[in-house]
Write a structure and sequence with these properties.
binds adenosine monophosphate; 125 residues; HIT family, subunit A; 5-stranded antiparallel β-sheet; alpha+beta; 4 helices; 27% helix; single chain
Length: 125
Amino acid sequence: MAIDPTAPYDPDNIFAKILRGEIPCDKVYEDDHALAFYDIAPQADVHILVIPKGEYVSWDDFTAKASEEEIAGFIRAVGHVARERQLVTRGYRLLANVGRNGGQEVPHLHVHLFGGGPLGPMLAR
Ligand code: AMP
């Protein structure tokens, strides 16, 4: 079910539990600002989620409240993961679902990083 991107942060959401090490993940990368891991239900040959370490419900919450350092660190981490996974030459796609229309299901900001082959049209209509 889609989440409310304006609701207060829920510290019991599944990505918060992954960040605290309470639930395992297939880790790709970690630094002071971000954690990247493989999506449990991949929708492309390569499907990685990159999440900030801070408690932000959504892209909206993050861009409104995060510090410049957090924003720069997170965005740099996304770029780093794409380079490290050799996705740049053939190209890749980034996606952040926000709220009901976006179909966001986990209330901790995550950027989907898709690659590994042609990804088709941007949206299925
Ligand atoms: P969204 O619809 O943008 O909120 O995407 C949530 C994503 O999280 C989906 O692609 C799920 O497959 C993925 N997901 C949910 N639980 C886990 C988990 N424990 N480990 C990795 N990915 C997960």
